Inverse folding.
């Protein structure tokens, strides 16, 4: 039998104990950190490179860690919202015990929402900041630990603005589905990669809209 904490991460109904709520939050937090770090790596490495160019080795490590920690804090906070969404969907009997959609309408709605958001100006604006690490750093550079925290937080907010709708697709094929998690992680990383065509975002949007429409109609 699995550990009680592991079982608590997959509640079968919306009556959550404090231990269940904590386990679900920890699960989402760990998953968001693991999924978003690969796509944030170019920005974090660029920040560290600029810091090292300043010639203060001791400060470099600390500021880089603060920058990365502030970025990840945004996704930890997102995890609170995601856990709340899971609770609400379970209250509506819209999720299976494996935390995947049990409703065609929910599945179609999430796909259509993500597809439409891919085509919005807000998505494109956030993505531009995520795809140009040096441009972001040149425009937003701040000195000191507070400056590093503020820059990491701002980058995290741009990243969340770029990816929140795609992250909700975890509910489509299952939050506990490792293949689906890897697929979304790679999709997000490719979208942010500077050397790939920016039109990839619209291609994602079209594919998601077609998939949502096919399920809905």
């Amino acid at each position: 039998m699995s550990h009680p904490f592991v079982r608590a991460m997959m509640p079968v109904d919306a009556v959550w104990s404090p231990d269940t709520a904590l386990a679900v939050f920890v699960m989402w937090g760990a998953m968001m950190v693991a999924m978003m770090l690969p796509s944030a790596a170019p920005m974090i490495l660029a920040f560290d490179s600029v810091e090292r160019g300043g010639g203060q080795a001791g400060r470099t490590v600390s500021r880089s860690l603060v920058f990365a920690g502030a970025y990840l804090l945004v996704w930890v906070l997102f995890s609170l919202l995601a856990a709340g969404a899971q609770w609400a969907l379970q209250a509506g009997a819209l999720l299976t015990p494996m935390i995947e959609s049990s409703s065609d309408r929910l599945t179609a709605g999430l796909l259509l929402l993500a597809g439409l958001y891919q085509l919005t100006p807000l998505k494109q604006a956030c993505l531009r900041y995520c795809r140009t690490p040096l441009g972001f750093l040149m425009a937003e550079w701040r000195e000191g630990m507070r400056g590093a925290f503020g820059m990491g937080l701002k980058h995290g907010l741009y990243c969340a603005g770029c990816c929140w709708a795609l992250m909700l697709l975890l509910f489509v094929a299952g939050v506990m589905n490792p293949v689906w998690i890897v697929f979304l992680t790679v999709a997000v990383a490719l979208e942010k990669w500077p050397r790939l065509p920016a039109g990839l975002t619209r291609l994602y949007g079209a594919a998601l809209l077609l998939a949502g429409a096919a399920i809905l109609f």
Notes: Residues 40 and 191 are 12 Å apart (CA to CA).
